[in-house]
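pipeline stage [seq->struct] | target=LysR family transcriptional regulator | organism=Streptomyces liangshanensis | residues=317
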Amino acid sequence: MTDVSRAPEGQPLAHRVPDLGALELLLAVARLGSLGRAARETGISQPAASGRIQAMERQLGVALLDRSPRGSRLTDAGILVTEWARRVVESAEAFDAGAQALRARQDSRLRVAASMTIAEYLLPGWLIALHRARPGTAVSLYAGNSDSVGARVLAHEADLGFVEGPTVPAGLDATVIGHDRLVVVAAPGHPWARRRTPLDPSELAATGLILREPGSGNRQVLDAVLAPYGGPAAPLLELASTTALKAAVMGGVGPCVLSELAVAEELAARRLVAVPVSGLDLGRELRAVWPSGPRPTGPARELLALTRQGAPTVRTP
């Protein structure tokens, strides 16, 4: 027989130590004095229990049980192994309890970062639905531009992010959760509001506009689509707030390019006028992002499911 104390050095522990199920079975035999009763308690057949004990004996290189018609009695080696098994099982139970506590703590909070349009016009509805499903989950929200959202997710300062830009930062995985369209808007008294023909892209690029700050999804999309025309002209104003942008346009400062989601109410009330543009695709994808690797779990996974089921995953280098 091979002495268990002389197991080959460097051999993985999992190959030298019986699995938890076998150890729990041995403890049940020691407590009940019968392999059959131990098998019933652990929910397996007696032949399976006997085979598991024999496999453990082969693995350890010692006999653990003396079997007789009157029952099963631990050998001297079996008594010693049972004491070790009890410590291992108790440690495993403590490990499991700790892991459950960690999961419970993780499931009790959710940190979300979202770009401004999503934070203002889409996220509230999703969070209301999440609260109904998980009333015990505390949600904190950071709202900023797409660049800052990506940075917070990469730094693990947010469990899930939502961005509007045309690209996904390296180090993040993403899934498309919706689509949006940018629209050129002007005050009703602006000359563009009375145009009978669409704007030409070169005219839009040459005109000073009220713009979001660099790093915002709006600005990234506009910079990309106007790049073939020399890029946007120097802005009249750069503002980080959608509300401020709309107020500046309605105040007659100049035209602006904003999300259709953000101006729907003002367009319906004719406080703003949409100005058509020919030959320019101002559509964009809205994405959820998380650090590259496994998809989110817990409340982040549930929030993701509430946004859009079955969207394709976009993986970045």
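stage status: PASS
auto-comment: The chain has two domains: 4-105, 109-315. Confidence is low (pLDDT under 50) at residues 1-7, 309-317.
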